[in-house]
Fold this protein.
Amino acid sequence: MKESKDRTEQFMYSTAAAANTAPSNSLLYQPSRNDPMGDGSSSRFDSKGKGRAVQDGDILALDLTSAEEGAGNQGAFQQMQMIEQQDSYIQSRTTAIESIESTIAELGQIFTQLANMVAEQRETVQRIDADTMDIQSNVMGAQRELLKYWGNMVNS
């Protein structure tokens, strides 16, 4: 029981911690982005006329060319930090999901054990019922024999 309680507390702590660590500046949590590609442009098409992401789309873009141009570029550094924060958030959610999965598997085992115990008890109850019927039959037979003996004693 203590082990189960510890698992429950661990599960509750890990899910609460994962829910509270959602990065506020995450691109995944900004449903109305005016900058779909993260480069300051609100156009659907780039300078070469190629299609860009829809504004309401769920796309995370990382400008790797600006990251390669120089180490002093603050925008690329911020993008990398956001990706690291998202990775840590995703990892915490993964941990929480794995915890839920193991809890569900443990519950499945508990219910299987419970079903086996009920099946075993059913057989025991049936045996007790049959033994009770045998006892009733034996008591009635003994009562008849005692009455016969008593009748023989009274008549003699």
Summary: Helices lie at 2-20, 64-69, 74-155. The chain has a mean pLDDT of 75. The chain is about 70% helix and 0% strand.
